[in-house]
Amino acid sequence: MEDDGRYRDGRSDFIRGAKDIAKVAKKQVGKKVGRGVDRMADEYSKRSYKRFEEEDDDDDYAGAPGNDGGYYRNDSRANDEEGHSDSTEGHDEDDEIYEGEYQGIPRAESGKAGGMDGVTAAQAQQFRDLSAYEGERRKDQEELAQQYETILQECGHGKFQWTLYFVLGLALMADGVEIFVVGFVLPFAEKDMCLSEPNKGMLGLIVYLGMMVGAFVWGGLADRIGRRQTLLISLSINSVFAFFSSFVQGYVSFLFCRLASGVGIGGSIPIVFSYYSEFLAQEKRGEHLSWLCMFWMIGGIYASAMAWAIIPHYGWSFQMGSAYQFHSWRVFVLVCAFPAVAAISALTTMPESPRFYLENGKHDEAWMILKQVHDTNMRAKGYPERVFSVTTIKTVKQLDELVNLGDGAAWHEKWRIKLTSLFHQVWSNFQTVFSPEYRRTTYMMMAVWFSMSFSYYGLTVWFPDMIKYLQKQEYASRTKVFVKEKVEHVTFNFTLENQVHRQGEYFNDKFMNLKMRSMVFEDSLFEECYFEDITTSNTFFKNCTFIATLFYNTDLFKYRLVNCRLINSTFLHNKEGCVLSDVSDENNAYMVYFVSFLGTLAVLPGNIVSALLMDKIGRLRMLAGSSVISCISCFFLSFGNSESAMIALLCLFGGISIASWNALDVLTVELYPSDKRTTAFGFLNALCKLAAVLGISIFTSFVGITKAVPILFASGALAAGSFLALKLPETRGQVLQ
Q1: Listed residue (336, 197, 189, 206) closest to 251, CA to CA
Q2: How do residues 191-239 score in pLDDT, each as one tens digit?
Q3: According to a count of CB atoms within 10 Å of the terminal CB, is the N or C end of the chain lower?
Q4: Closest Cα to residue 508, out of 486, 493, 481, 523?
Q5: Is 144 left (phi over 0), alpha (psi -120 to 50) or beta?
Q6: Range 330-367 burial, b when 16+ CB lie within 10 A, else e
Q7: What does pTM read for this prediction?
Q8: CB 566, CB 546: distance < 8 Å
Q9: What's the whole-number mean pLDDT along residues 16-34?
Q10: Tell me, what DSSP letter sits at residue 705?
Q11: Coiled-coil regions in this chain (predicted)?
């Protein structure tokens, strides 16, 4: 009996020890698989694996986890191993299974299960690491936001902020100029380039498409490589292609240059507001961002004034043969690039945003800039002895990223890898804008931006088109009609304008050195007539007969002769290309520039009111209130039956709606954290330009047809925008996230 008891005790010790050994082996296999998964997942991360090696060392001495979650002590494990060794001398078939597992020859089922457990454990550990990292990063960001606000309070608001205000204002001014350039030059460029109606429409929209792409791209990059650097790159692209567009002759090349110029200037608005906000303390932010918006208005005034002063002066031009022409409108395009060039020059003297540096773990660089801000303001205020008291600033925990460029890789391959890595970083940052934390805010802001842009841009382009339509109606009402006139042996050497001649007979008449504007000849006979040096615009001959008639140095091309018969008639030395004619309409050109000037200047009162009240009544009340009043003003459009009435309504709508735009810009800056601010702003601004293209296309299609549809579309969009705006969180009085 005693032998039987000792046998049972020895067997139970053996089984317990074998199970412990199997668990240790299983754990080691899982560790190796998990380590391989971690290394593959972190291929682009500079993560230390030292902790895994330390865990391996600890496991060798600390013992394996038991069933109760505890650990065996070193001495008890040694005793167990001695017992297990003694017991295995007389092992049976069951013992061989445990011994085989320990030797690394597991059964297929057990090996698969162990591998899967290891992968799952590795993934769970990686998820816990990422969650812990995000938690630490969020905590750092909250602490930084509070401390940064305190530091800005100590730095004060003074000379540095005002200097940066004017520098960034130039960049915003360049954006305002870009909107007006194509609209002002289009009536003259269409003559220079022989543009069809579809080509003119594309040229009018191409700038918005470029700005849409630019806003998204530069906004995303500014959160990765810095506000200042990205703004310099975008403005440089705008300047270069604006310069080229002044000289290129073909339509396709001009279209491409304006597209690239729009892509460059697209980064201006999202970067400028984010950049400036990170130098402003909480009590000054709303007011001074609203003051900054005035530079967009100044850009519009600058463009209108330059167009007024330059384009109608046709003497400001030269040409080399008929192939290369440089008319006054090209001088205007060149002058419109000056604000961007000035912004680049001034921006090179300004520092990067210290908030961007702190968000990216660059403490020393941020501290030096904040000290510069403090010292500049204190010296300007007469307190040069005041010392910047901040010694340490909280920085956000970074997840270091390692990109393996390879030792022997070519330079273009290294650049490709860098750009690919940067693209993935920007795209990942953009996706976080739609994470559960920001998803509701982003969707609401998308709706508000879209509705505001759809109505504003649609109406601001619809107004000038309606004014032109009313002008054409008034011009057509003054048309003179001549029927069955007979003219013989007469020389016409004066301008013919706005006339209709039906069933006339012209014998041995001379038309020399004259301009024909809006002239129509119908069912008329020209016999032995002579046309020399004729320049026409909107002039047509319909169902006419020409007998023994000579055309010398004229632009009476085939498309101006509609269903006409030519008998023994000759065309010599026709004018080649598209000649820029001073279409009557110098007065009309002045009117277009004057209307744009008034419409832009009308936003000045709205800018002042929004700046003074932004921090007093809050962003949401300003946004919703201005949108509601703009919505109401839309119904006055039905009374715009004259040119002067439409101009007055344009000024009224612009002056009211600008306050909602200012509030929307401030709200967008304050709703998103610093590491996502320009990404979110750029995306929303890109959506704004898309809505502008849709609004312009839809609203202008109803010119001369009905006013009801534009009124309903604009008022409905503004009403929806004001309602949704009230659902957004108020950011007044909060620190910059």
Answers
A1: 189
A2: 777 777 777 778 878 888 999 999 999 999 998 899 999 999 999 999 9
A3: N
A4: 486
A5: alpha
A6: bbbbbbbbbbbbbbbebbeebbbbbbbbbbbebeebbb
A7: 0.73
A8: yes
A9: 55
A10: T
A11: none
